[in-house]
Amino acid sequence: MPINIPKELPARDILERENIFLMEDERANTQDIRPLKILILNLMPEKEKAERQLLRLLSNSPLQVNVEFMHTASYESKNVSKSHLSQFYKTFSEVHHQRYDGMIITGAPVETLPFEEVSYWNELTSIMKWSKSNVTSTLHICWGAQAALYYHYGIDKFALPDKLSGVFPHFTQDAQPVKLTRGLDDTFLAPHSRYTGVSVEAIEKNEHLTLLAESNQAGPLLIMSNDEKNIMITGHIEYEATTLAEEYQRDVTRGINPNLPINYFPNNNPNNKPLHRWRSQAYLLFSNWLNYYVYQETPFEWSTTNDTN
């Protein structure tokens, strides 16, 4: 089934070349079905790239998905045009009266700051509080996952000695199989790109959380709340094959002298094109989230009440 996005969204041309089934508003409105409403709070600096990555993964499902994008009103992004934001994005004040079947909160390049020092932290906490009663299930990615663990469950992040960058093997926890990891291999690869981490012990001690996948090198990757409303992915499983290479070259240009991403470039040579070795796991994880935690759990008709306090 298709994913419904605005006709003029720049990501459309790339996704159509990949034979992803897209639908415009006019045609979607004629369908006699109840599509899923997904809200994406895009905190990434390169918003158009993040749009493309997430839309690609949301498209691999038999469900029709209507996507809306949201940006923070309390911080003005410097890496995207105002016209792009005004045309394709909404602010919280424009959506807080609505209900959504699912929401995605992306990562953000602010992880070295204490949460309370992030310029839009108060706005983000209002959104996360609102999501408790206005969103069926929320997927949090990288810094978004750390923010959710801190706000909802009181688990803080800690600084790493060096930036964690690379593609790492992870293993699923087999003590209690869950629908989110259904079909995932016992071990699978996923990218990470961050300066901070979260404690496995803190997650395991929290009675509201279940650790679903982790890495001996990169730590916890996949965490779910026991009420299944919040899912946290500490890595960037949505990344394209070349994203870590682009970040590495950016840091080289800035004079940061970064380490090579681990287990990423063939033969550890940055001139070699990296392979996309986590694509199938990313598609499966997003499909499981949409099917089991959004579609099968959301009411056909939301009530008209909401909670914005």
Automatic annotation (TrEMBL):
Catalytic center residues: C142 (acyl-thioester intermediate), H236 (proton acceptor), E238
Residue(s) at site: Important for substrate specificity: S193
Gene3D superfamilies (alphabetical): 3.40.50.880
Location in or out of the cell: Cytoplasm
Keywords assigned by UniProt, alphabetized: Acyltransferase, Amino-acid biosynthesis, Cytoplasm, Methionine biosynthesis, Transferase
Binding site for substrate: K163, S193, R250
GO cellular component terms, semicolon-separated: cytoplasm
EC number: 2.3.1.31
Short name of one Pfam family: HTS
Predominant localisation class: cytoplasm
Sites marked Important for acyl-CoA specificity: E111
Role this protein plays: Transfers an acetyl group from acetyl-CoA to L-homoserine, forming acetyl-L-homoserine.
HAMAP family on file: MetA_acyltransf
Protein name, as recorded: Homoserine O-acetyltransferase
Gene: metAA
